[in-house]
Amino acid sequence: MALLPILRYPDPRLHTKAQPVAKVDDAIRTLIADMAETMYEAPGIGLAASQVNVHQRIVVIDVSEDKSGLLALINPEIIERSGEQVCEEGCLSVPGIYDKVSRAEKVRVRALNQQGERFEFDAEGLLAVCVQHELDHLDGKVFVEYLSALKQNRIKGKLAKKARITA
Ligand code: NI
Q: How distant, in Å, are the alpha carbons of 60, 98, 99 from that of 126?
């Protein structure tokens, strides 16, 4: 397993639309293991392949307290959504920035598992937020794009400054 470098906003590669996985094979399973390791190490509760510059439709999520709930979703789709919730979000690609985003309260998700089998599940609360956040990444969208233009510019400024300091 290997830790993968995470792209930082406003890296333009984060805005790439990811392509569906054509075949779930060992290369995909290795990528998922590396993504999970990278997510746990960060630490974070979700990571999309887009964030490690692999533009295929794969996300890993674990909202458990003890790393016991790894969910790997291949070609995930939200097939139903209902309600509304506002949650303070952060993102491994936008370090140190947290802000409120409004999303569906409940979602039903369809995806392939690591054996290439289709499955569906219902998510609500934090898991629903995380699924929506990660699926946005696959469409090239970062959560700060839900914020005002003023806030987005401030965030870009802050991250550029940080990059200069750490470079
Ligand atoms: Ni994110």
A: 14, 15, 15
Distance 87 CA to ligand 1 centre (A): 14
Percent of the chain with pLDDT over 90: 94
Q: Residue 133: which residues within 8 A CB-CB, separation 6 or more?
A: 46, 89, 91, 101, 103, 143
Residues with CB under 5 A from ligand 1 (ion): 91
- Measured CA to CA, the distance from residue 14 to residue 38 in angstroms comes to 17
- For residue 103, report the distance from its CA to the centre of ligand 1, in Å: 14
What is the CA(134)–ligand 1 centre distance, in A? Answer: 6
Catalytic residues: 134
Q: Is the pLDDT of residue 64 over 70?
A: yes
User: Among 155, 165, 35, which Cα is nearest to 97's?
Assistant: 155
| 135 C-alpha to ligand 1 centroid (Å) | 9
Beta bridge partners of 47: 60
How is residue 13 written in tokens?
A: 């590669």
Enter the pTM of the model: 0.95
**Rounded CA separation 55/18 (Å):** 4
pLDDT tens-digit readout, 90-111: 999 999 999 999 999 999 999 9
